[in-house]
C-alpha cells in the first residue's frame, strides 16, 4: 500500500524559508519520478516541481522557479522541497506524489491516493 507522508510546513513571514519532506513507503521509490503539488482551498491542485528518478533532471512551475528547489534521497525514500523567499501566494497545502509522463509535457500524479499534505502559510 502506497503511503506518502508530508511534513515541514508552518507559518512563516514573507521572505523566509521552509524545507518540506515527503517520506514514501510501499513503492520502489527509486523507480519513480516524483513531484510536489500544492492546493489552495477551493482551487485545483497545481504542480509545483518534479524531479527525475536519479535526481539529474528537475522542472518547476514558473511561479516558483529560482526560489524553490526539489531534491531527493533514494536511500531514504524521501523527496524534499526547499522553499526560499516565500511570498503570500505560496500559501497552500503541499503534497507529493509520483509523476507520470515526466518529460512529455503532461506530468500528472501517479497515485490516486494522496497523503495528508503539509500546510504552508506565508503571512506577516
Shape: globular
Let me know the average pLDDT. 96
Structural class: mainly beta
Query: Helical proportion?
Result: under 10%
Strand content: over 45%
Measured distance between first and last alpha carbons: 40 Å
SSE arrangement, N to C = EEEEEEEEEEE
The biggest sheet amounts to: 7 strands, mixed
Helical element count? 0
- Whole-number radius of gyration? 13 Å
**Total strands:** 11
* Contiguous runs where pLDDT drops below 50 for at least 5 residues: none
List the helices and strands and how they pair.
Elements: E1 3-7, E2 10-12, E3 18-25, E4 33-39, E5 46-51, E6 58-60, E7 68-73, E8 78-83, E9 92-100, E10 108-109, E11 118-122
Parallel strand pairs: 2-11
Antiparallel strand pairs: 1-3, 3-8, 4-5, 4-9, 5-6, 7-8, 9-10, 9-11
Task: Walk me through the structure.
- By secondary structure, the protein is an all-beta fold.
- Helix content is 0%, strand content 48%.
- It contains no helices and eleven strands.
- The protein has strands at residues 3-7, 10-12, 18-25, 33-39, 46-51, 58-60, 68-73, 78-83, 92-100, 108-109, 118-122.
- Strands 2, 4, 5, 6, 9, 10 and 11 form a seven-stranded mixed β-sheet that branches. Strands 1-3-8-7 form a four-stranded antiparallel β-sheet, with no helix packed on it.
- A hairpin with a 6-residue loop joins strand 5 and strand 6.
- It is globular and about 40 Å long.
- The mean pLDDT is 96.
